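User: Continuing from earlier, I have the next pair ready.

Assistant: Great, send them over.

User: Here they are, in order.

Assistant: Folding the first of the pair now:
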Amino acid sequence: MPDTGRFIIRAFDAIFNRAGGVDRITALTLSCHRCSATTSSSDRELIHLPGGTLFKCGQCGCHQAVSNARVAGCVPAPLLGT
């Protein structure tokens, strides 16, 4: 999973478009580099921006925005023939 600079994204759930891109992140679990806490956020706890999402650490409040395209890059490509 990607290192965003302030966080490591451990897992996420999203609404995907037909091209495989992320339209909206609906859940996110991340580990904070500042305090080492792991935080899980649901859709209502995330701040949705045009083309991205703002999230924060539930422990220390550190926050960062990340583009949905970058998160979509974490999804493994489907296998041919599946």
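And the other member of the pair:
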Amino acid sequence: MPSLRVIASSIFALTLVSSAQAGARAKTNVTDADSALLISAVSDVSSYSSGVSTYPCVYKVNSLETQTTSNGATNYNFGVTGCNAGGEEFVGRCPDLTSFAACGNYKIVVSSESKTSKPKVTSVKKQASK
């Protein structure tokens, strides 16, 4: 019969592993569902955090990293080609890269509390040209 110390050690080890996994970012292949989540979030300006002042349109999703937080939310860090749409009325999907100024590569972070909650745009940052 396992001792109390062995059981406690096992629980502690599992807790450490879970904590380490919760904060780790993982590169992920972009699925149609991921792209739909991004477009849905950036198209709804009411879902933007108060600190976000860039209103993007997305032409192409280039990459995705996901991170699960300790409270169970998922942060999606999208690398996209897009433009600063310049205002709320043109957010969402870009028809091309010539309609707007400030086109280039952006990092857009979308947070989702659960599969049923409304995704929230928490960060939009233009990436420096290489």
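Worth noting for the second one:
The domain at 25-126 is CATH 3.10.450 (Nuclear Transport Factor 2; Chain: A,). The chain is about 25% helix and 35% strand.
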